[in-house]
Amino acid sequence: MRCDKHAQRTVIVPLRAAQNLLGLPGGATNLDITLFDVWIAQTLAEDLRTRYPYKVESWQENNAQLVSALNAQSVSTGIIRSVVMVVVVLGIASVLVVSVVQKGREIGILRAMGTTRAQILRVFLLQGAVVGVLGSVLGLLLAVALIWAFTHFVKGSDGLPLFNITLPWRVALNVAAVASVCGVLAAIAPARRAAAMDPAQAIRL
Q1: What does the pLDDT read at residue 111?
Q2: pLDDT digits (tens, 9 = 90+) for 83-117
Q3: Is pLDDT of 161 > 80?
Q4: Are residues 83 and 50 in the same domain?
Q5: What would the mean pLDDT of 137-153 be, rounded to a whole number?
Q6: pLDDT for 7
Q7: What is the distance between the alpha carbons of residues 139 and 171, in angstroms, rounded to a whole number?
Q8: Cβ distance 197 to 124 under 8 Å?
């Protein structure tokens, strides 16, 4: 093995051989601890520092740049999700506003026939919920199809999938619920506008 000052190499040898090589019989220069939950490493490191007079570092401290990058990625992902959610709500709301304008005469006729404002309100809220549910179902089907295509066609040199991507059913249900709620929220303003329409004026449109 060749080493220089610009490169570092790792050699795995038996513990006794390493002790003899470094002249540390029965000793060690470094100990690594494997954890089942990697996110408790920082807490464990702080606890060990208070108990023992040794230098204890967690993987977060040894990879501060990586942790900062992951945190920045999480923040940017949250911002993107929020923006997409706002765009989706505005899109559903605009579609329902156009629907209210186009069906103004029908709404006026229904109101003249005795349909209450609450019933008109519920109709458009239901329409928004249906749009949200259909959108979430189509989105989940598209996600499943893309995951299947990625895991079956993007493979490494060993023929195995490059990444093991799964879609937990709880995440899928949460996404569907959020999409449905967004559909209802987007329908509130158009539904109130439709419920507030005057029958006589609506019929003359």
Answers
A1: 80
A2: 888 888 888 888 888 888 787 888 888 888 888 88
A3: no
A4: no
A5: 87
A6: 53
A7: 13
A8: no
Kindly state whether residues 97 and 23 are assigned to the same domain: no
Strands (E), 50-194: none
Task: Determine the Cα–Cα distance for residues 169 and 175; give it in Å rounded to an integer.
Answer: 10
Same domain for 113 and 90? yes
188 and 135 co-located in one domain: yes
Residue 155, classed as helix, strand or coil, is: strand
Main-chain dihedrals φ then ψ at residue 161, nearest 5 degrees: -55, 140
> Alpha-carbon distance 82 to 71, whole Å?
17
DSSP letter at 163 equals S
SS (H, E, C) 100-140: HHHCHHHHHHHHHCCCCHHHHHHHHHHHHHHHHHHHHHHHH
Contact 199, 112 (CB under 8 A): yes
Question: Which residues fall within 8 angstroms of residue 5, CB to CB, at 6 or more apart?
Answer: none
First to last CA, the chain: 87
